[in-house]
């Protein structure tokens, strides 16, 4: 996600400084016109506004608050986090950064790799008004903004709820799809009818039409990330006193699929897993 987002910033005339643990990711950005720096600390010492796109709460906390992290930077004044790491980690980081005179703008994105490349991401934004206003033109380079609230962490809750709904819709659609095919239905006709009726969803209209029916299974979001996000979502909801009967069942399904078939597989390959589990069943 970070590569296409940074590319949109470059295309809009921004000076972009980059650091990533992946040499290949850095090389791709320098070829596009960005300047590479050797560390997180170097970025924080050189840039007033720093964007982060990180894979887990632990990595997020380390990059923002750990030794050599953004909190100790000499130049940084606003950190814009595009990750999905949960409200607890975000609230804590926001509080610590503010003690260092740094604002945290909580700005998780939705829309997948395709939305990032097209610049059509949904950007859920929470943070202090002045900081959000300063970075809004930058965020609008790659998506549509939804102002959630004044506290970092509020956008995280919305993003997690969104991802939980998305992964739940895909899971139940996958089960229905496999059952229909095993029952002799034509896959194209079945999905066209569902998408014209009350059973349609973002999963049926997008992922099934673009990645499942062609059997490309290349949406660009791994099963492991689904498991991480739905786990964080359920923790947030249960902390709010909401009994997560359906959410917990869906989490079990995704975790089982990851353990059985691999956490790095594309999330749309859940269909293949369900097909395999269904072999011989009558």
Automatic annotation (TrEMBL):
Domain 6-phosphogluconate dehydrogenase NADP-binding, first and last residues per copy: 1-147
Residue ranges constituting the 3-hydroxyisobutyrate dehydrogenase-like NAD-binding domain according to the UniProt record: 153-273
Official protein name in the record: NAD(P)-dependent oxidoreductase
Domain of life: Bacteria
Keyword presence, Lyase: no
A Pfam short name: NAD_binding_11
Keywords: NAD, Oxidoreductase
InterPro entries in the cross-refs: 6-PGluconate_DH-like_C_sf (IPR008927), 6PGD_dom2 (IPR013328), 6PGDH_NADP-bd (IPR006115), HIBADH-like_NADP-bd (IPR029154), HIBADH-related (IPR015815), NAD(P)-bd_dom_sf (IPR036291)
List of catalytic residues: 159
GO molecular function: NAD binding; NADP binding; oxidoreductase activity, acting on the CH-OH group of donors, NAD or NADP as acceptor
């Amino acid at each position: 996600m970070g590569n296409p987002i940074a590319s949109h910033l470059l295309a809009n005339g921004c000076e972009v400084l980059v650091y990533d643990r992946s040499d290949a990711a850095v090389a791709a950005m320098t070829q596009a016109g960005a300047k590479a720096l050797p560390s997180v600390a170097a970025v924080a010492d050189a840039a007033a506004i720093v964007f982060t796109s990180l894979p887990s709460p632990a990595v997020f906390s380390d990059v923002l608050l750990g030794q050599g992290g953004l909190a100790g930077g000499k130049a940084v004044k606003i950190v814009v986090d595009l990750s999905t790491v949960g409200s607890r980690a975000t609230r804590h980081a926001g509080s610590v950064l503010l003690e260092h005179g740094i604002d945290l703008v909580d700005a998780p994105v939705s829309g997948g790799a395709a939305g990032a490349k097209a610049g059509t991401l949904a950007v859920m934004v929470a943070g202090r008004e002045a900081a959000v206003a300063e970075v809004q033109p930058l965020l609008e380079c790659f998506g549509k903004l939804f102002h959630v609230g004044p506290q970092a962490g509020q956008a995280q809750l919305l993003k997690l709820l969104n991802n939980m709904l998305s992964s739940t819709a895909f899971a139940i659609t996958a089960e229905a799809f496999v059952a229909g095919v095993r029952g002799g239905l034509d896959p194209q006709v079945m999905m066209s009818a569902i998408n014209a009726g009350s059973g349609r969803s973002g999963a049926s209209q997008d992922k099934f039409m673009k990645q499942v029916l062609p059997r490309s299974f290349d949406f660009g979001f791994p099963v492991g990330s689904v498991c991480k996000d739905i786990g964080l979502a359920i923790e947030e909801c249960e902390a709010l006193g909401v009994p997560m009967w359906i959410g917990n069942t869906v989490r079990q399904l995704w975790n089982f699929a990851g353990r059985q078939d691999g956490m790095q597989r594309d999330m749309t390959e859940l269909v293949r897993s369900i097909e395999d589990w269904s072999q011989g069943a009558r």
